[in-house]
Amino acid sequence: MSNPIVLPDYSLPQSAVPIVHPAELDPMEKVRLRDEIKALLKARNAVLIAHYYVEADVQDLAEETGGCVADSLEMARFGRDHAADTLVVAGVRFMGETAKILSPDKRVVMATIEAECSLDLSCPPDAFEAFCKAHPERKVVVYANTSAQVKAMADWVVTSSVALPIVERLHAAGEKILWAPDRHLGHYIQSQTGADMLLWSGACVVHEEFKAKALFDLKALYPDAGVLVHPESPAAVIAIADAVGSTSQIIRAAAELPHRLFIVATDRGLFHKLRQRNPDKRFIEAPTAGDGATCRSCAHCPWMAMNELRQLAETLRDEAGMAANEIHVDAETSRRAMVPLKRMLDFRP
Ligand code: 13P
Ligand code: SF4
């Protein structure tokens, strides 16, 4: 019989969130940097894989150079299947680690190795290992926003695109689940599936700051607006949503729903793609301040904001920049993390 352990709150305090001010570039400097990065990608037989939350110029550059802009699941697949020698990841570190695990023979560099994720930081491998050991009867399901070491302890890795059907399948098979690290996403999946889920106590510092009361007031001002919410947001915010889903699922919902105006509770980086795909619709940010603003980086992930054109050029310019921002995952961790990652990639709902 296992001893239950009392789980402390592992979420990162707002005081630990970096404040990032992306540099304002003049148009000439932008053109010069974009041309330089294009030439460097070509010379290195490298492909740029960007997340929807990074700045618009980096997203556009990824698409113009044959790379991709995608959610975390599609980024992983794209890198694995691409023939380039080097994958350049504009996103956060767990995305680079996933790319490296899936493509051990490719060189994987981040636009900047400094780009963390508060969910990854809120799940230290040693504490997580103790939690798993205390509950050996449960299937360990971890969100992709975790370190390679945490993934190596899991039975399943999931992203927000596939978490629901995977947990549904496990629940139908009679499995009990140990879930980490995002308590809000975990709570949402639990409420939708009825699965028995023991939740770790991490949170995303960006999504946790959306405020239900202020969203409700905004919705009263725009009664015809649709509300789109990423499931890393608190339950009271999710309760107001017309559609809940991953970044790519939000993009799809914006195109499919009949509303002309949307209030969107996710990182504002996504607005670039939302506006490109729906030029006839309007998008406004869900409120993060309400009556008591607490966020340090409201509605924009500070680590995603580090993925700037200038930084990307510096990384690619010479071997020192490449080496300083390269992702390494040791062979044994990689071998073990590959098992739950492959299960996710092979999963068919
Ligand atoms: P997606 O899997 O929806 O792209 O989300 C990744 C993420 O970090 C959201 O905050
Ligand atoms: Fe992590 Fe939140 Fe940033 Fe996504 S938005 S990378 S979950 S800190």
Ligand identities: 1,3-dihydroxyacetonephosphate, iron/sulfur cluster
- The proportion of strand residues reads 5-15%
First and last CA, distance: 34 Å
Tally of helical runs: 16
What does the radius of gyration come to? 20 Å
Strand order of the largest sheet: 2-1-3-4
Largest sheet: 4 strands, parallel
Written overview of the protein:
- It is a single chain.
- With 349 residues, this protein is an alpha/beta fold.
- It has 3 domains: 5-15 and 119-205, NadA-like (Rossmann fold); 16-116 and 303-333, NadA-like (Rossmann fold, 3-Layer(aba) Sandwich), CATH 3.40.50.10800; 207-294, Rossmann fold (3-Layer(aba) Sandwich).
- Helices cover 42% and strands 14% of the residues.
- It contains 16 helices and 12 strands.
- The strands form 3 sheets. A 4-stranded parallel beta sheet has the order 2-1-3-4, sandwiched between helices. Strands 6-5-7-8 form a 4-stranded parallel beta sheet. The chain has a 4-stranded parallel beta sheet with strand order 10-9-11-12, covered by helices on one side.
- Helix 7 (148-151) links the parallel strand 5 (139-143) and strand 6 (156-158).
- The structure holds 1,3-dihydroxyacetonephosphate and iron/sulfur cluster (SF4).
- The site of iron/sulfur cluster has 13 residues, from helix 5.
- Residues 71-73, 145, 159-160, 204, 232, 246-247 line the site of 1,3-dihydroxyacetonephosphate.
